[in-house]
Fold these 2 entries.
Entry 1:
Amino acid sequence: MSNPPKLRNDCFALPPGVHWTPVDEALAHLRQGMTVVTGIEPVPTVAAGGRVLAAEVQANRANPPYANSAVDGYGFAHAALGDGAHSLPLIDGRAAAGMPFDGLVPTGSAIRILTGAMLPKGVDTVVLEEDTAVANGHVSFERGLKKNANTRPIGEDVTDGEALLCEGHILRPQDLALLSAVGVETVQVRKPLRVGVLSTGDEIRELGTPVAPHQIYDANRPMLLDLIHNWGMEAFDLGHITDDAARVHATLTDGATRCDAILTSGGASAGDEDHISAALRNTGTHNLWRIAVKPGRPLALGLWDGVPVFGLPGNPVAAFVCTLIFARPALMTLSGAGWRTPRAMTVPAAFAKNKKPGRREYLRARLNADGHAEVFKSEGSGRISGLSWAAGLVELEDGARDIKPGDSVMYYPFAEFGV
Ligand code: AMP
Ligand code: MG
């Protein structure tokens, strides 16, 4: 199978001269630059949960594959019912699921039938057991039953050959039920996107190693690795490195041989110690995206040996939000799942806030018992605990807003970001 084409060298280029790029513009540029980079492989349906479909899937069989009874009861031909109360002689035999009745049910007679049983020849209607009385070899029931009552016609749900799921769909548990029901044994899916995660910073220490008073634990790497995992991608731990140009170089070069994309955190601004930016600058594909967003700092974007590198801010809150808003849809596109735009709920605010124009803001938020969005007590971007407190994000548009309790705001549950 041929490999998809590589990304274009200018895939992260922004128009020159713009100082602060609005979020929507940044997203539009990102979307333009990203294409699927993963190969295709066949996988048995039973093992395909969480995988991305590489092609549309069609049914190999109808569902249901044969007309059958929806209830336990008695089956007969509707045409033979007269005008009075119904009393039909029962024939010998029974139709059950997996044990069809092979004979013909004569017009004017009825047969015992159970849920899921194929309708025998001569049966088009079933009366529910609870609505009948059986005595002297006859089944009696009230008038008023419609033709085909309590039956499921062949193909009622899915017809043979029908298109079911489209390319880019991420298979969920219920999709595996559908594909199995219609006999799809194997699906063509994308190979999982391999995403490397790298932390940088002289002050950062790995959990489980001793920390000096001036050092902090690496909070970003476990978070980013787990996000990747949540998105059905393959996470590669590229570890933590100090702010050292040679090590940044070597680690990105190694990562690029094993990964389809790399997320780094820290060192992405334009300062002396911003070694991710410095390294990417030498590739000729580097772009420092100053996006009008809070929380955020510049994003450093570039290609390292053809592999897209998303240089996220070091601050964990900013790293998290920027990953959800910018990196996720880009990674989804690279993976074959296509650009994903989260859908917001419009809910009343449980807070007040006067917001200045000029940038979009994402607040750590959750719904209170009334379904109103409350926000974390602090907008401090160092307050990692607010991410755990929150169940989603409130998005405040680029312009000014003077929000009073009860005013409508946009709320994105984390589930909209696959978290
Ligand atoms: P930087 O983007 O490298 O300037 O880092 C911004 C802030 O985020 C600094 O306070 C860093 O100490 C902090 N930071 C950077 N990387 C991490 C990390 N992996 N875990 C927790 N905090 C970090
Ligand atoms: Mg740093």
Entry 2:
Amino acid sequence: MFDHPDFDGHQGVHIFSDAATGLQAVIAVHNTARGPSAGGTRLWSYADPKDAVTDALRLSKAMSYKNAMAGLALGGGKGVIIRPETNFDRKALFEAYGRAVETIGGSYITAEDVGVSPDDMRVIKTQTDFVAGLDEGPAASGDPSPVTAEGVFRSIKVAVRHAMGQDTLEGLTVAVQGLGHVGYGLCEHLFGAGVTLIVTDINKAVLERATSELGATVVAPDEIYAVQADVFAPCALGGAVSEATLPQIKARIIVGAANNQLATLEMGESCRQRGILYAPDYVVNAGGIINVAAEVSGHYDPNWVAGKLDELEVTIENIFNLAAKKGLPTNVIADKLARERLGL
Ligand code: NAD
């Protein structure tokens, strides 16, 4: 573990298994200097369980950076459940996971991520109080995805203003990869702002919905990079910006919800050299964790959440300006600011 390329002095890396339910999970706690670690739990199929560990290490570090940049009193952690290969009892699986979260006694607070819903959170809640993103209860904040989508939408507006000098999105084209909880919500915002949408997903039903409701043009998953668009919005999984995809990307701006969009840190410099404005993922997709933080505080206040989204816009603009001034990639600027806030 200590030699793992993604190990970054993580405070704890916890492996859980439960034969009765098929649970195999990893919870990585990166840093708790600013408060208990918080971050979503992902349920995903992994060809190799080692990839689940890598995901947890990378995603928990990104959560530390994200929470610090959003100015939250939370550290960074992430849970990954390896999707059982055979049929499984979902309730039993999440109960077992809830017991696992309980054993690390508040150093990690979980919420939703890819493949996990508020219903699953309700099951986890039967086993532990270290859970948020609930849709019932005194401070319930519900599904964080709509707030994430709003933060990404606002960030696209900031990026367009910075790179194209215009305040409106009307008439622009945005290519959206992944129409899940966040991606579809983002498309709705963009459609409302007069944007033409080009979309892709591996789920046909959601593509049909985007065509009929939002007039979106559908392309195959491997075609989304090369389409003629002003903005590329990766909203599926990580690694969308890689040596293979970047040369195809025609958009001048990359802003999306997905975590770990850059396949390697060097891709940030490659974007800069190509004149592509990349908005650091963990800054722009913080809406969901901001919403969760409101719940964790014990009193959900929508005005506080809205104020934090205003702050997010200022932060992203500041990163763009600093990057331009110093001639450095935006991801390098964001990482430096985040590490300063973490005292690293
Ligand atoms: P989701 O599972 O609801 O949606 C993901 C979508 O991507 C699905 O529709 C899926 O079919 C599609 N997809 C998967 N592989 C694809 C491929 N190769 N090409 C095209 N589409 C593909 O997840 P979500 O909650 O919308 O999250 C999307 C991304 O945003 C994830 O990377 C997640 O970690 C990140 N994120 C989500 C939140 C949140 O509030 N939900 C917050 C921060 C970051």
